[in-house]
Amino acid sequence: MLSATLGLIGAIVYGGADFLGGLASRRLGAVRVTALSAVAGLALIAVALPLIGGTFSAEAVQLGILSGVTGAIALSLLYGCLAIGPMSILSPVTAVVSALVPLTVGLVGGERLSIVGWIAIGIALVAVVLVGFVPEKGAARPRLLGLGMAVGAGAMIGLFLVIIDRTPDDSGLVPLLLNRATSAVIMVSAVVVLVVVTRLRGARSTETAAAGAAGAAGHGPGVLPAWAERAVLLAIACGVVDAIANVLLLLALRAGELTVVSVLTALYPAGTVILAAVLLRERVAPVQVVGLVLAFVAAGMLALA
């Protein structure tokens, strides 16, 4: 019951991080927001590590670094496929694949579910699709490239879950510390490359072309305007909330089964949908309401199972 509860709460918190990151990305750009959030998350985990504890070992360090690499790849593919669109199709595809990969690994590894558990898993997978589905009028069919990237993003997210599940029980937050450090290095390096490329383009093109390149990157180097300062705070908050979600995920995996936690974690779009409805007054489609109800039903069944 504890594992299912932590898994569901973690999913909602993940959705909150996505919500904050999405708002910040409108101003700063996805790459910069991801870099800032990675650094903020690293700071939080570094502060929490002495309080919660954890044993450094070769296995914990290696798995932590590997999870950081898979996480960076997952985010790159996720943002890329959503940019190609349509989001209403590619987002649920990513979420479902992210659940199926660890679910399959767990079952092959010997984890077993009761009949009630299997029914709950089925309901949860349906809920994942319904919650993540955002009706778009006249949405185009997804391109093969977009579908491939969506599947790849989901597979990398699922692999991240599998790797974290494999970390030693006595490692505490050590794997998450290495995960955040690796992600921060990768994403900050990406920002540096992006800034250099933008400057080179600005030097070789007209003022108009340079402005367009800076806009595509998020915002050029220099002093940030007032609106960007708020975006920076949102990005930092995104990293803190995402780090908290990672801790909840780790605790859920240590307390229960990979099969259960992975499916519940895939319900992360629920947190985004709820916050968007409450804070931004965005309309929640009836199909998403059904998905939210099914998500809580499935979580309750998994807790009992």
Task: Give a brief rundown of this model.
With 305 residues, the chain is mainly alpha-helical. The protein has helices at 2-28, 30-52, 58-84, 87-108, 115-132, 144-165, 174-204, 207-217, 226-255, 258-265, 269-279, 286-304. Helix 3 (58-84) packs antiparallel against helix 6 (144-165), helix 3 packs across helix 7 (174-204) and helix 4 runs parallel beside helix 6 (144-165).
User: Beta-strand level of the residues, as a percent range?
Assistant: under 5%
Computed structural class = mainly alpha
Distance between the termini: 8 Å
Would you report the number of β strands?
Answer: 0
Report helical residue fraction.
over 70%
How many domains is the backbone divided into? 1
Q: Please tell me what the overall shape is.
A: globular
Return residue spans where pLDDT drops below 50 for at least 5 consecutive residues: 206-222
Q: Outline the biggest β-sheet.
A: none
What is the number of helices? 12
Q: Averaging pLDDT over every residue, what do you get? A: 83
- List the secondary-structure elements in sequence, H or E: HHHHHHHHHHHH
Radius of gyration: 19 Å
